[in-house]
Fold this sequence. Notes:
Elements: E1 9-11, E2 22-26, E3 34-38, E4 41-42, H1 43-54, E5 59-62, E6 69-70, E7 73-77, H2 79-87, E8 92-96, E9 103-107, E10 120-121, E11 131-135, E12 138-142, H3 146-166, E13 179-184, H4 186-213, E14 228-232, E15 237-242, E16 254-256, H5 258-266, H6 274-285, E17 297-299, H7 307-315, H8 326-331, H9 340-349, H10 366-375, H11 384-400, H12 406-418, H13 425-432, H14 436-450, E18 455-457, H15 475-496, H16 501-517, H17 523-535, H18 539-551, H19 557-573, H20 584-598, H21 605-616, H22 624-636, H23 641-651
Amino acid sequence: MVPSHCRCRSLAIALAATAWMAVAAALAADEAARSFDVPAGDAGEALRQFVQQAGSEIMFLSGSLGGVTTAAVKGDYTARAALDRMVAATDLAVTQDPATGAFAITRRAPADRTVRLPPYLVTDSVPLKWRYVSLPGFEILSCGRSAETVEFVDEVYRQQAWLDEIVPPELQARQAVPTAMILFSPEVRKAISANISRLAAAKAAETNRQFAAAGLRIQAPATDPMPQIKLWDEDSTGVDVVLQDWGPGRYNDIRFSPDHVFFLLARRAPPLPAWFVAGVLGLYQTRLPQHPLQTRQFFSPVPWIAPEVTAALREDHAAPPTLLALGDLLGGPMPAASSDRDKRAWLAERGLGVAGGEGSALVLSPAQARLVLARGSEPGSPWRRDAWASQCLLFVRWALDDASYERRKSLWQFVARASVEPVTERAFADCFGLGFGGAARRLDGYLATAADRVLVLVPATPLDIPWIELRDPTEAEQARILGDWERKEFEFVRASHPEYAEAYARQANRTFTRAYDDGVRDPDFLAALGIYECTVGDDARAREVLEPAVRAGVARPRAYVELARIRYGEALGQPGGPDGRLDARQVDSVLDLLQAGRAQLPPLVAVYARAAEVWEHAAAAPSRADLLMLEEGRRYFPGDARLALAVARLRGRLEP
């Protein structure tokens, strides 16, 4: 039985960040006059000097200040008066929270457009007290209270363990670099949480479009009680979270949001079949709240097509719907989506018009719901996509609903095969021990049960939550995590609003340079620094730090790809083979790096694309083993047309 008091807060780890343009300075409410001497100049530098002169108790959060010059302030002023003088002739505005005394310095965007950028933390003048913990798959850097940090991390790990019972790790996007989570204290919340919260609303529509394209009947929340930003690149993921004042034990209520689960499935290579992604997300949407001491997961009865159709199914088990043929469900294309307009027309053609016109919600009467239940999966029906999504959920649930765990293993084995080879009845029978017809009959019988019954999943092995013990981070750990996050922010801002990117690059550079000048030479840190240098276009500097990182065998596939790119560019500038082609030494110097990157997770399309490019410029022809490696890339990334064309051209050069 699921405790009725259990409330669920979604750990909504958003797909990508579109955030705000702001600088926030959390200041102690101190009206005493101080002596200030801040020269006019770049706003970011001027505000850092202001922070130093205002007092060491200040925490300072910053966003983009590119192009803003503040006025000089010299003399004795209160903090508020000094700030007002500094920004008087700019488009910056100062506000103060009456409850906490915190100041927020925000930049007014032009009326004709709104620019939103991710906030970033300035720690050079006011270092925060960070704590660190490493768990399988995660690294956490927190300036929050230890008790809240431990509760949050414990529950994140628990939610990942529960997800692994539905989708094993090998069917999720995996990476050699642990997901880095940066946790902010509740004291910092007022400076940034309202602005990060805007992220959820800004991203909700885009996320819903991605869900719809994947055949998912899911709506992303427009608001979230735990403000956060997720940014990622080819081989790493970072999450910036603001902890909340929820009190002891309340973090046990959080859980992964559907869009985070979608993120883990959609980024997997080779790509998972669409029916599996839709089925898992549909099932996850039915997951019920649970108490942390529970050792089982609970899922509500199966929904079918629409709420009114679900009600019709539960009322009349004697008239179950006609299911799509299993071969079509698992091996055919996802049916096209239809609009409410198409659905209204379909009902009207059958003498069951819908009340309300364009723009009104589509609500079905009992008679209409029974018609959709009976014929919604037919070819040409505008409800066929919805029926397909419902049946995907049903099939995944049926496979997981097995006390012996054998069907779960069969499902995962079949999904792994369906990711790299065409779906056939023979492959299905190899995994499940029965053909499409036999499985379809079982699915027909299971639907009536699933429509009424709560599913209880017991883990195959007891959940093993590790002991979480916080410690001080090393300088290398702190600089790597913060610098890598700031580099991701820079990449995001450069792609969306390049005019504001310089400030983000400067902040990442400060973080990395400070640690490097202190003598930090940890391979993981050097790899992160090298990737940053590649991002800002300094390949010479990047090579200096990437070479020792890869010699140490660093677990960072992008480090190998970037160094391979640099070596390849140098080889093209001075080809050692005939007719301007690369000789064997040059080819090997690049391919050895790519092979090392290939051996790490996640698979990167750049590994295979660069290898194909090298062979197209090599004096020697590729061997069959080389071509097999490139064919592996085609299987992992079937949608990459350029890679497919390159492999096709190289087949003609295959050595005898």
